[in-house]
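Annual report, structural modelling task.

Input specification for the NAP complex:
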Amino acid sequence: MSSLHNKVVVITGASSGIGKALVLEALGRGAMVAGCGRSLARLQDAFPGTDGSKLMLFEADVREPAACKAFVAAAISRFGGIDVLLNNAGISMRALFNDASVDVLRELMDINFWGAVECTKAALPAILERKGVIVGVSSIAGYRGLPGRTGYSASKFALQGFLEALRTELLHSGVHVMWVSPGFTASNIRNVARAADGGVQGETPLDEGKLMSAGECARRVFHAVAARKRSVVMTRQGKITVWLNKLLPGLADSLVYNHFKKEPGSPLK
Ligand SMILES: NC(=O)c1ccc[n+]([C@@H]2O[C@H](COP(=O)([O-])OP(=O)(O)OC[C@H]3O[C@@H](n4cnc5c(N)ncnc54)[C@H](OP(=O)(O)O)[C@@H]3O)[C@@H](O)[C@H]2O)c1
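The model returned the following structure:
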């Protein structure tokens, strides 16, 4: 799938950050795009003046199976099928497991994992018809557990396991299944990351201006989709982390601990 001209691209979590950039990149490459988020007003604010003939915005909370089905059905009804599904909607957390409510971990699983499963389930028959592509937006946290992010890591490990198994099931179907793992990317994710009590963190510990831009991340995603990559780890720091964790997992424990302990406001003592 080298060009997206008149292809149908369905994107969850389209109102902000990487999802918003994926919408703009897909439109720029000639696709027809369906994007969802929990608030139609927020989605509309994200794309002022965009040509509505090629973009469908749909209010859907991916925690709700019926909403995932309705979103996918609306995209098929509007554009006639699905070529690419991007399971992007996601949230993060920052709290030690000992302090955090288990409900925080459950919410992350509901959005990051079950939301992707439900959207994929709803879209698969249409994607099979077009021999399309299913993508999960994962993270380095899907390869290496990160302290203060137990629920986030669990959700991304689960996502990758699900997608790897599905890819193998679909090996001879013509459908391609893949995941992409951005490194730290400028977005709203750290501002709305869940704290121990489930409230939002409200600030980012990183200098967002120094991170990869969401636009660059989106370009790399569609490059990987066109090349039908199995998985992509986007940053040098991410690649080193993944390999170090495979080769020297004990050392990786110490280095990861020390890295996250140095973050401003780190919950690690
Ligand atoms: N930024 C990074 O450093 C980074 C690194 C690795 C991986 N990622 C992954 O990239 C993906 C996108 O994150 P981002 O960084 O772009 O964060 P973001 O700016 O906070 O965007 C998250 C998007 O997900 C949507 N969303 C959240 N909960 C939802 C729900 N229940 N139903 C439907 N949509 C929902 C949000 O829309 P509403 O709030 O309007 O519903 C928003 O559009 C996530 O899967 C994240 O894990 C990000």
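The longest helix spans residues 102-130.
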